[in-house]
Amino acid sequence: MRDSPRGEESVVERFAPLFSPRTVAVVGASARAIAQGNRFIRQLRDFGFEGAIYPVHPSETMIEGLPAYPSLADTPEPIDYTFIAIASERVPNLLAAAKGRVRFAQVMSSGFGESETGRELEKDLVKAAHQGGMRLIGPNCMGTYSARGRLTFVEGGRDVPGNVGVMSQSGGLAMDLLLRGRGRGLHYSGVVSLGNCADLAADDFLEYFLADPETQVIGAYLEHVANGRHFFEQLRTAKARKPVVILKGGRTRQGARAAASHTGSLADNDQVWLALSKQTGAILVDTLEDFIDTLVAFQAYAPRVAAPTGRVVLFGNGGGASVLATDFLAKVGLDVAPLDAATAQALARLELPAGASVANPIDIPANILQKDRGAIAQKILEVIALSAGADSILMHLNVPVLLGYRDVDMLTDVIEAAIRAKEAIEGRTHLSLALRSNGEPEAERRKRESRLRAMKAGIPVFDEIPNQARATAAVYGFERFRAKRSS
Length: 487
Description:
- By secondary structure, the chain is of the alpha/beta class.
- Helix content is 43%, strand content 16%.
- It has helices spanning 11-19, 36-47, 91-96, 119-131, 171-184, 202-211, 228-238, 253-263, 270-280, 288-300, 319-331, 341-348, 366-369, 375-387, 399-403, 410-425, 441-456, 465-486, and strands spanning 23-27, 52-56, 62-63, 66-67, 79-84, 102-107, 135-137, 144-145, 164-168, 188-193, 217-222, 244-248, 283-285, 312-316, 362-363, 392-398, 430-436, 461-462.
- The strands form 4 sheets. Strands 8-10-9-11-12-13 form a 6-stranded mixed beta sheet, sandwiched between helices.
- α5 (171-184) links the parallel β9 and β10.
- It is elongated, with a radius of gyration of 25 Å.
- The two termini are 31 Å apart.
């Protein structure tokens, strides 16, 4: 972390008060109304925060049942993390008066560098933060989420800590990632809404996530990187030690204008980002959906050391879907090659009923998949993993079709078969699952249940085969880059 006032601490130690704070101050809560600070205090309590919470208010003595203090210098203990949601012009004086008792301050307030009239005020803000002995997150941001530290800016749930660390220069997208991530089975080591990056910026948090042992996958939504050289050097020095997935806003001329009005940024040339991806192995994606899908894949997979061949086996129920999927897989550089003779013979020995196709793609009608309560699906997966020489098995299921068999719970049986197979083939090949649905409420409910069950077992789950294919291709690209760099 650049310009740290904390001496020789490691980057992980320096950021510890941010992701696992013991004391939190809240500026912008009221005894007479429900302000942003009140909501933040309630979110902390609901999320299970066990440390001390100190409301700060110039005149109130009690807020949300907690003693309030007139300034950051008056709290009973030094503050690890301060949440600030008051009028922008009042913030600099507040921070300057902290007298070195605050480690990190997060400014939710807007009205700073994202507008022409606020740029000087933003400079004053940074100067005041450093004068007060702290580092600044924001302004114009939602703050920090950490399940391990029980710190959050979204409502609901007590999420399990995970291995995915994300930074976002959009507060709204940071909330999307958390709320949508819950439904997708993503578990985060930390999520930081960066806002204007007046002080701490993307390169600082990249340095932290690369060093943090709790983080194995890094995601970043970026609109600008002020210290691009440091950001690039961090990636280059890391030598693809961890996958870094980047969703870059403002890559077109129109998008650059939108980014400038959002955070006051100046977007970089798109060719710069393409070159950065090529030289460092960072994965550049185009949409929020692809961003989440790629994080889902990397959360489940430990990237292999050997370079993948690109060969995949497609297995599921639905012949037409398999044909379309084969076309799409080829477009993203994945090879749905015919099975070798040994694998074909091993599948033939399973004596599948008429109607099953054991070429690649492997198409097994739903009534056959249910044989022996899904055991046939497990046997097929194990045969493929043991003898087909494929880097990945892409399994796809038509959820409404499986639910159509009322006398049995075919969906659960096949999901459990896939989980058992995953345990048996661990380390041999990647296994992923696409659960295709029709949007009907019952199908969606069962799909959500099945997704979370499979994700908990380490199988990444996607909504459609193209999503599954793009995420698989991203994993292959990263594995190829790392293998090439290590050779």
